[in-house]
Amino acid sequence: MCLAIPMKVVEIEGPVAQVEEAGVRRAARVDLIENVKVGDYVIVHAGVAIDRLDPEEAEETLRLFEEMMTGPATPTTDEQG
After folding, report:
1. Which CATH number fits domain 5-71: 3.10.290.10, 3.40.50.620, 2.30.30.140, 2.60.40.10?
2. Whether the predicted pLDDT of 16 surpasses 60
3. Could you give the C-alpha distances from 22 to 13, 65, 70, 75, in angstroms and in order?
4. What are the boundaries of each domain within the chain?
5. Average pLDDT of the chain?
6. Which of 4, 15, 23, 32 is the most exposed place for a label (fewest CB within 10 A)?
7. What's the pLDDT at 73?
8. What pLDDT was estimated at residue 71?
9. What is this structure's pTM?
10. 3 state DSSP class of 67
11. What single-letter DSSP state applies at residue 32?
12. What are phi and psi of 77, to 5 degrees?
């Protein structure tokens, strides 16, 4: 199974961007996506940015990845009913 990760573009030099998530920085090709800018979130698979995400969608996806790794948050008394 392959997994594509939302990452934030922090630097661009030609067709290669430095992208970052959770303190991990990687190089990714961005020439498949038009007009990529620093600050954009892109989905990175195998070192290639394959799509752009809006920030809200990227944050939600990253939250879900975190939940898969750590388990769901424990409901508060109010959430339990």
Report:
1. 2.30.30.140
2. yes
3. 22, 12, 15, 25
4. 5-71
5. 88
6. 23
7. 67
8. 77
9. 0.78
10. helix
11. T
12. -55, -40
